[in-house]
């Protein structure tokens, strides 16, 4: 028994605004049926004593601690800018007035 029918694939294609030929509908119905069957098999294997996880290996935080370090002054940062206005980089306008 198929988990997804050709008519359901056609309905999904219409919702997605995809124009699929009859051959493509049959092909995708077969592929989606295999995918749904594979997902069902994984659901059968999942045991209640196995906690859900998002990764196979544990992840650790790799952020470094925040430390205050010397940095450029506004004058130094703006010294190479082609145009400056109110201690900021001046760039050409790309949006109209209504934005």
Automatic annotation (TrEMBL):
Domain of life: Bacteria
Family matches, as Pfam families: GatC (PF02686)
Lineage: Bacteria, Bacillati, Actinomycetota, Actinomycetes, Streptosporangiales
InterPro entries reported in the protein's UniProt record: Asp/Glu-ADT_sf_sub_c, GatC
Subunit annotation: Heterotrimer of A, B and C subunits.
Stretches assigned to coiled coil: none
Cross-referenced Gene3D superfamilies: Glu-tRNAGln amidotransferase C subunit, N-terminal domain (1.10.20.60)
EC number(s) from the headed UniProt entry: 6.3.5.-
Residues passing through the membrane, by range: none
S-adenosyl-L-methionine among keywords: no
The UniProt record lists the keyword Transferase: yes
Family indicated by similarity: Belongs to the GatC family.
Protein's name in the database: Aspartyl/glutamyl-tRNA(Asn/Gln) amidotransferase subunit C
Entry keywords, A to Z: ATP-binding, Ligase, Nucleotide-binding, Protein biosynthesis, Transferase
Organism, as annotated: Thermocatellispora tengchongensis
Role: Allows the formation of correctly charged Asn-tRNA(Asn) or Gln-tRNA(Gln) through the transamidation of misacylated Asp-tRNA(Asn) or Glu-tRNA(Gln) in organisms which lack either or both of asparaginyl-tRNA or glutaminyl-tRNA synthetases. The reaction takes place in the presence of glutamine and ATP through an activated phospho-Asp-tRNA(Asn) or phospho-Glu-tRNA(Gln).
GO molecular function: ATP binding; glutaminyl-tRNA synthase (glutamine-hydrolyzing) activity; transferase activity
Example GO biological process: regulation of translational fidelity
Catalytic reactions on record: L-aspartyl-tRNA(Asn) + L-glutamine + ATP + H2O = L-asparaginyl-tRNA(Asn) + L-glutamate + ADP + phosphate + 2 H(+); L-glutamyl-tRNA(Gln) + L-glutamine + ATP + H2O = L-glutaminyl-tRNA(Gln) + L-glutamate + ADP + phosphate + H(+)
UniProt xrefs under NCBIfam families: gatC
The protein's enzyme class: ligase
